[in-house]
Amino acid sequence: MRFLPVLVSLATLASAGLTAQVAPAAAPETAKPAAPATQKIRTVKLKMRDGLRFEPPRFEAKPGEALVIEIENGDTTDLTHNFVLLRPGTRETVITSALALAEKGPAQEFIPASSDILVHSQVLAPDGAAKITLTVPGEPGIYPYVCTFPGHGMIMYGALYAGVTLPPLDKDPNIPPTAAQTTVAGAGKRPFAQRIFMPEAGPAAIAVALAGSQNVCWDAGQCRLRYAWQGGFIDASANWAGNGLVLPVVPTKPWWRAPKDDFPLRFGSADAAAPTPKFLGYAATPSGPIFRYRAGETEVFEQVIPAAGRPGIAVRLQIPRAKGPVFYRAANDENSKWSSSVGTWNGGVLTLTPAQAADVTLTLTSALCTP
Amino acid sequence: MNPLALSRPLMSAALIATALLSAAPALVAAEALPAAGARVAEFYSIGKLATPAGVDPQIGGLALMPDGRMVAAFHHGEVAFYDFKKSSWKIFAEGLHEPLGVLPGKDGSLLVMQRPELTRLRDTDGDGVADSYETVFDDFGMTGNYHEFAFGPVRGPDGKLFVALNLASAGDTIRPEIRGEWSPIGLARDRFYAGDWKKYATEAGRMYGRVKWRGCVVELDETTGASSLYATGFRSPDGMFFDSAGNFYVNDNQGDWRGTSPVHIVKRGGFYGHPASLVWRPDWDGSEPLKQPVERLNALRTLPAINIPYAIYGNSPTQMVTIPQTAAWGPFGGQMIVGEMNSGRVLRLLPEQVDGVWQGACVNFVDSPALRGGIHRLVFAGDTLYLGRTHLIWAGGEGIGTVKLTKTPFEALNLHATPKGFRFEFTAPLDVSAADPMRWAGQRYFYKYHEPYGSPQMDLTPVTPSKVTLSGDGHIADVEFAELKPGYIYDFDLAGLASVAGDTVLNPRIAYTLNRVPRVPAK
Ligand SMILES: [Cu+2]
Question: Which of A18, A62, B166, B233 could form a disulfide with B149 if both were Cys (CB 3.0 to 4.6 A apart)?
Answer without folding.
Answer: B166
